[in-house]
Amino acid sequence: MTTQILTAVGAMIFGVAVCAAYFLFSNKLLELIFPTKEGGDVHRIAVNLRRRGLIRPWLFLGPALILLGVYLMYPVVATLILSFYGADGNHFVGGANYVWAVNDSEFRRSIFNNILWLAVVPAACTFFGLVIAVMTDRIWWGNIAKAVIFMPMAISFVGASVIWKFIYEYRGGTDTQIGLLNAIVQLFGGTPQVWITIPLWNNFFLMIMLIWIQTGFAMVILSAALRGIPEETIEAAVIDGANGWQIFWKIMVPQVWGTIATVWTTITILVLKVFDIVLTMTNGQWDTMVLANLMFNWAFRGFDSGRSAVIALVIMVAVTPIMIWNIRRANAETKGR
């Protein structure tokens, strides 16, 4: 343990030292190439200062941009090439993997499940987060409530799955139901069920887990945005006779619409990559398979790199438009300021 801590600390110190040395050396080199000594030609000094200003940002950002290019662009290109090869990655098969994806029923089921997750989870998280943010700002113990609601964010998806397994737990025969949901159903005279095996509905039971985790994130971001609404605006609406419902929908929501969109797109991207919950709870059985789990199965269980590459590209293509839209919206807001 001590060795690991020392290694980590040493790596941090070494990394910071290397970065500092690079910045100092590159800045010194820039000064040598474009000198600005006193007593020289004023025009040349001005030109050199302008060149330094143009080059210095790229000089400092260059290593990071190169690393991003290598670690982001190379995998995309390599995955695209791999999608045209067979299971072993050595035999060219053309578009056969894409034809398989279109005709495979499990792939189509995964697409449907992902669409279902996209339709429910981001909207539910954003809505509950907004409602809770508004409600907790009006009660004296609101900060305590926010802390409790935010706590699931600190739990990993696998840890949350273990917790919810106990909620959905089913015991057959005459055994006592230890699962919270089945215990409640039994208390009211209902019949206990193996909830995560019921087709279609089991997807919603899995979605509840992600909503439980991500609502805290939406609440914190939206709560900060709501605090930015001028009090004068709310007071003016109250004086004009607006009720709480009208203030919420016609004053608060339009004022924080940009933040709502940001939260929604962030959770949408997360949903497209959802993996841990499905793997831990059902392993994709009972019609709960999603694209990330299908990709994992073909890559590490079916050992078919070509088909897994096709699924990876589908996920990337689905995420990219949302990210582009989010970046453009953020840039538009920045220019507006």
UniProtKB/TrEMBL annotation:
Gene3D superfamilies per record: MetI-like
Family indicated by similarity: Belongs to the binding-protein-dependent transport system permease family.
Keyword entries, A-Z: Cell membrane, Membrane, Transmembrane, Transmembrane helix, Transport
Principal location: membrane
Pfam families xref list: BPD_transp_1
PROSITE patterns: ABC_TM1
Cross-referenced SUPFAM superfamilies: MalF N-terminal region-like, MetI-like
Descriptive protein name: Sugar ABC transporter permease
InterPro entries, per the entry: ABC_transporter_permease, MetI-like, MetI-like_sf
Gene source species: Rhizobium mayense
Location of this chain's protein in the cell: Cell membrane
All copies of domain ABC transmembrane type-1, residue ranges: 111-328
Transmembrane segments: 6-25, 58-85, 115-135, 147-167, 204-226, 247-272, 308-327
Bilayer topology annotation: Multi-pass membrane protein
